[in-house]
Amino acid sequence: MASSAELGADRVPRVVRTRADLRDALASSPRPVGLVPTMGALHQGHASLISRARAENATVVVSIFVNPRQFNEAADFAGYPRDEAADLAAAGAAGADVAFIPPVEEMYPAGFQTSVRVGALAEPLEGAARPGHFEGVTTVVAVLFGLAGAERAYFGQKDAQQLLVVRRMAADLAIPTEVVACPIVREADGLAMSSRNALLSPGQRAAAPVVRRALLAAREAFDDGERGGEALRDRMRGVLAGEPLAVPEYVSCADPATLAELGRVEGPALLSMAVRLGSVRLIDNELLP
Amino acid sequence: MASSAELGADRVPRVVRTRADLRDALASSPRPVGLVPTMGALHQGHASLISRARAENATVVVSIFVNPRQFNEAADFAGYPRDEAADLAAAGAAGADVAFIPPVEEMYPAGFQTSVRVGALAEPLEGAARPGHFEGVTTVVAVLFGLAGAERAYFGQKDAQQLLVVRRMAADLAIPTEVVACPIVREADGLAMSSRNALLSPGQRAAAPVVRRALLAAREAFDDGERGGEALRDRMRGVLAGEPLAVPEYVSCADPATLAELGRVEGPALLSMAVRLGSVRLIDNELLP
Question: Which of A59, A206, B54, B138 could form a disulfide with A29, with the two C-beta atoms 3.0–4.6 Å apart?
Fold first, then answer.
């Protein structure tokens, strides 16, 4: 019978809160190291990243940092869910060895003035809708990669553009951390797991699966032979229009390598969208074929 | 009697031209690794960096890359001196084990789109005079640091602001490479060694030591009790005005931590200047006290 340690259950992650303490903790930890960067409010999607990291590495670090630089709306930052005790329990249960939970002034100490920016890949979609968002993401991820020196880092496919942008940054800057993509984890009704789901009212929560339905309707049209990019976008818009609470921000059918919108789908395509339900903004995506 | 290898003389550096080959070369090299980033046209200043790296590390890598992104003038880039054979001999004589000489498309492959930018420290002086220069420097240095994973990297004090900016970037992004500053190496007449000195006409070369004389005049005034920032700048301007071939671009007496211009010198101060002799731009500096 496997021990609880072997199962990865009931671990209590070692909590470190400073850059120096994270370095010290990792200096004496077995390699390879797997890093799971998060903003806390951990759900089953995060747990799947941590479990994957656990399976592939000798040491697993979860970072929990609500990064002010990647929020383009003060209210979104202020309202972002935070629950450290619950996060530690969830990270431990999924197999984390170390939880890095820095205060803002430790990630960005006095005098901090460096930013990392990715170009064209960060411009459309989330980049257009959320000015400054990706520069905040790539800067904090560069710091986390520098600090952890991990062999691998795990990101969810739900944030498809983030994954592309972070992977591009790591390749361009020759950062020796492999960026590993992990599948979207969904609720039973198809809603992609997200920390922001907790902010939905009951009515909004009931309406939220329309996002997934819209993506699946476009996939169905694709499977039936539709290859027009605008026709696929229209298919998604049509489904969203049936839900009065859902306000689309963008609907995209793009080249998954460049994120350029497609006129015709002749190879792989990334269907994606951002939809507001009240003040809560949800994103989701589906890769064709 | 020491062998030539022990003396570090007559080594022939192993030449690598791709990111992958540099990684491979370093994977099998003893640690620690010392990195000396250069743009070639190696002179005794560079040799002093390489010798220092040789003394402090088990493996020494010299990179030779005339980085187009840090040139704000096309003519300066086109005219920058290049002589790979001479550089290899000089790097070998000073003790380099590996010479990394990538073509532009290897440092910036198709699709490269990441930039690293430092804020306030990169704005005055060279940053104001050369728009985009430091973003080019910090981006290429971030790539070199990522590739080499060196324990230490060596930079000359002649490029005082570059040193501050690179050190800031490495600290902010938690890059685990120590940035080591090395003293300015000078010709017998005081002219700071620079690859651009080779571009001076005989008349310009004869006039060039005015830069050093201006800095020393300000130091002398400081040693005699002058503490006014503008008075010290005026002292430098006055000396430069005595040389008709010298056209000052800026003259500075600044806080060496922030590069803010000083009204009064109450602690350390960085005297610095950029001066044009014809189309050749020279910089030099002196740290007070």
Answer: A59
